[in-house]
Amino acid sequence: MVFGAFTYIKYTELQSIVRQKNEQDITNVTKIFHDFLVQSETMLQVVGTTVVNPHISKNPKEKTKIFDALQEMNPAVIGFGYLDPQGNLLISNKDLHGKKINALEIKEAKSSFKETLKSQHLVIGRSFFFKPLGQWILPLRKAIHDKNGRVVGVMAIAIINTQKKNLFSGFETELDEDVLLIKNFPTGYYRLFYSNKKGNLDAQKFYGESCPKNTCTSVINQVLGLNHITLQELKNSNKVFSFFSKDIQGRAINGALYYDTKYKVWISVYHYNSAITQEIYKDIALLVLLYIVMMLLFYFLFKSIEKYENAKERDLLFKTTHDLLTNLPNRAFIYENVYHSSKFIMQNGAQIIFIDLDNFKNINDTFGHIFGDKILVIIAKRLQAFFTEIDLVARQGGDEFIIINNSQNKNPQEVIEVIAMPYIVDDIEVRLGASIGVSVYPDDAQDFDTLLSLADIAMYEAKKVKNSYEFFTKEMQEKNRVNIVIEQELRSALQKNEIYMVYQPQIAADGTLHGVEALVRWENEKLGFVSPEEFIPIAEATGLILELGTYITNRSLLEIKKIYAQLGRTFQLSVNVSIVQLMENHFLKNILEVIHNVQFDASLLTLEVTERLPIEELDYVLPLLKSIGAEGISLSLDDFGTGYSSLSILTKLPINELKIDKAFIDELLYSHKDKNLVKTIINIGKNFSMDVLAEGTESEEQVDKLKEYGCDIFQGYYYSKPLKKEDLITFIRSL
Ligand code: C2E
Ligand code: CA
Ligand code: CA
Question: Would you say the CB of residue 534 lies under 6 angstroms from ligand 1?
């Protein structure tokens, strides 16, 4: 486009230069030609007048002198002659071997000779081959008149008309363009002279015959057309006109045209376009070169900009679709490539593996986040190495990874093993477990979003066991659905007054009442009775436990305080405290506030915390438990024996009571192993001066056995199920 414009501008510019040059050239040529004719005319007039002078005509020496002078006028002048009005050549400086010559008898000379007789001026005749001289000549004739204006004779000059010698030969003008002189005779347009430097021309055809149609006249017609003028106007204009045409061979030419009114000659000067085109080509070649160089420059500039932009874009895309720590694809990548396009194809049977590292928080807390990050990077590398290109390993965030396992020969157990291999970072060796949930495409779901949520559900199940995997099942989903409803309903349970407390008596070995354990109950209009084992974990996971816990403590203390008053006696009250509650910043402050509000005796309160205390948080937990103890509140370690915490930590914790988990009591009579364990627990408790409570005692045999081993307190259906407060009063009274 730009190039085209350049070329066009260049072309038109060149054209105007060429036009100017043509016009200048024709002006020069015309001037030479015209001057020559004027000079010739004067000479012929002078010579003619002299020749007819009887004195001179009788003096041959004088004659020769004049002839010589005439000859010197122009080297191309070959001969001179004087003719009578009837066309007879009377005098000539050339030896014509006595031949009689009559101009009217030469067909090429006839009409111009007649014209000469009628004209006051010099007249140019047709170019013709003059046999006596054996030359192509161009005749210039001038009528010589007497005092009365009668024609007495005609003076003529013959100019050699060849390419080498012609009327322009005498002038120092180097014509690099073609000059063509044309004149209109009654028989048609004839070429008078053609410079034609480039080659020989067939003079007979070129000068001997009239111009073929559409050659000589076409240029004239073009000029007329272009300038909207008539032929007469053109002739009288005394102006130079530019034209573009074709020569006989069809080659494009451009030139300038001028009509010499005085001598009635068309003068045309022209160039072959090829010359211009060559010029243009040269310029264009340069332009093309320049253009190419420019384009290349632009190309490389744009390329490098594009490369930079692309790189930037790719970089940005990579950054937004990849996890910066591990360089693994992230959720955005999955959304981009799996959800919204099918760049990554899940094959039939593909497993969506959802990995959540176990206790990864400990690693961060113990060794710092940089250390933790290094572990994550190692895990990423291990997973990538383990899986293949047809699989997708992504980091979901935190300590969670997602794998789309297209390789049918890889399984989740192997993933656990891969993660379980020891990590050595900064000379520290650590081991990690992972909980893995798996869903299968397309059996479980067709879309990735759902598959991922199903794998998450399965992972949640695996998390209960830890370092294990679970395949998603319909039951899990059902349970999940129920859990979602539970969560929704639980949010309004307190306001709807659906929550209340029951109390399960704890009986001392001597049969007296030791205390009660407060257990929460929830009766929902939609769900009916919901077990705390179902909704407490949900309350913990959603944080609802904090509000619920405060309600439980407040309500339990209030109710039991009332019962104290009603019965006129006191007993221990055990309240279950979730770890989520315990770890909350204001836990102790809140409890003390409730105690204060209710005016409850802190020494009658026991808080039950499970053995699954976050041992890793010991730095926080231990001072907290000590503070609790310092307030006179007792602590009971619930579900003892089920956790895997080392018994040695017992020595560190300010625990007042151990609650042997129901699972051991169940097996007490049948399992030798459990019997020994229960015995051991009771002994440990004794050694650390703790009370030992057996929960879930359902039979007399169990109670007897436990008493035999030295157990202090018993709780279970054998004595009583958890009771509503009215029933508890009745129960206690009945003791
Ligand atoms: P837990 O603290 O171990 O409570 C003992 C559970 O064993 C109670 O179930 C109780 O009803 C049941 N139980 C007692 N004796 C027997 C028996 O002889 N046989 C059988 N089969 N079961 C017996 P419950 O009330 O359904 O509570 C279940 C769990 O829910 C509790 O276990 C505790 O972890 C949690 N929980 C209950 N109430 C509260 C509460 O107020 N706050 C918190 N944070 N958790 C609670
Ligand atoms: Ca308990
Ligand atoms: Ca328990």
Answer: no
